[in-house]
Amino acid sequence: MASFETNHTASSISAGRATSFFASIIGAVAAWNDARITRNALSKLSARELDDIGLCFSDIDSIATRGTR
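The structure assignment produced for this chain is given below.
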Protein backbone atom coordinates (compact mmCIF):
# COMPACT_ATOMS: atom_id res chain seq x y z
CA MET A 1 0.00 0.00 0.00
CA ALA A 2 1.38 3.39 -0.96
CA SER A 3 1.21 6.34 1.35
CA PHE A 4 2.31 9.93 1.12
CA GLU A 5 2.22 13.00 3.29
CA THR A 6 0.24 16.06 2.37
CA ASN A 7 1.24 18.29 5.24
CA HIS A 8 1.92 21.79 4.05
CA THR A 9 2.54 24.70 6.33
CA ALA A 10 0.81 27.99 5.75
CA SER A 11 4.15 29.71 5.31
CA SER A 12 5.22 27.38 2.50
CA ILE A 13 1.94 27.97 0.66
CA SER A 14 2.10 31.74 1.06
CA ALA A 15 5.79 31.74 0.07
CA GLY A 16 4.89 29.90 -3.11
CA ARG A 17 2.17 32.41 -3.90
CA ALA A 18 4.51 35.32 -3.23
CA THR A 19 7.15 33.77 -5.48
CA SER A 20 4.57 33.25 -8.21
CA PHE A 21 3.36 36.83 -7.82
CA PHE A 22 6.85 38.30 -8.15
CA ALA A 23 7.69 35.95 -11.03
CA SER A 24 4.61 37.15 -12.91
CA ILE A 25 5.58 40.78 -12.31
CA ILE A 26 9.11 40.13 -13.57
CA GLY A 27 7.67 38.35 -16.62
CA ALA A 28 5.36 41.28 -17.35
CA VAL A 29 8.24 43.77 -17.10
CA ALA A 30 10.40 41.61 -19.38
CA ALA A 31 7.58 41.36 -21.95
CA TRP A 32 7.03 45.13 -21.81
CA ASN A 33 10.75 45.73 -22.33
CA ASP A 34 10.88 43.34 -25.30
CA ALA A 35 7.90 45.11 -26.88
CA ARG A 36 9.55 48.50 -26.25
CA ILE A 37 12.79 47.40 -27.92
CA THR A 38 10.92 45.93 -30.90
CA ARG A 39 8.80 49.07 -31.26
CA ASN A 40 11.88 51.32 -31.15
CA ALA A 41 13.76 49.20 -33.70
CA LEU A 42 10.84 49.12 -36.14
CA SER A 43 10.17 52.84 -35.68
CA LYS A 44 13.69 53.64 -36.88
CA LEU A 45 13.03 51.97 -40.25
CA SER A 46 11.87 53.98 -43.24
CA ALA A 47 8.59 53.33 -45.02
CA ARG A 48 10.53 51.62 -47.82
CA GLU A 49 12.36 49.32 -45.39
CA LEU A 50 9.11 48.42 -43.65
CA ASP A 51 7.51 47.72 -47.04
CA ASP A 52 10.41 45.40 -47.89
CA ILE A 53 9.54 43.23 -44.89
CA GLY A 54 5.81 43.46 -45.51
CA LEU A 55 4.89 45.98 -42.83
CA CYS A 56 3.68 49.56 -42.59
CA PHE A 57 3.88 52.10 -39.78
CA SER A 58 0.42 51.18 -38.50
CA ASP A 59 1.56 47.56 -37.98
CA ILE A 60 4.38 48.43 -35.58
CA ASP A 61 2.34 48.47 -32.37
CA SER A 62 0.53 45.22 -33.11
CA ILE A 63 3.79 43.48 -34.05
CA ALA A 64 5.59 44.76 -30.95
CA THR A 65 2.91 43.58 -28.54
CA ARG A 66 1.97 40.34 -30.32
CA GLY A 67 3.68 38.04 -27.80
CA THR A 68 2.42 39.85 -24.72
CA ARG A 69 -1.30 39.57 -25.39
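Interim note for the steering committee: Residues 33-69 form one domain. DSSP finds three helices and no strands in the chain.
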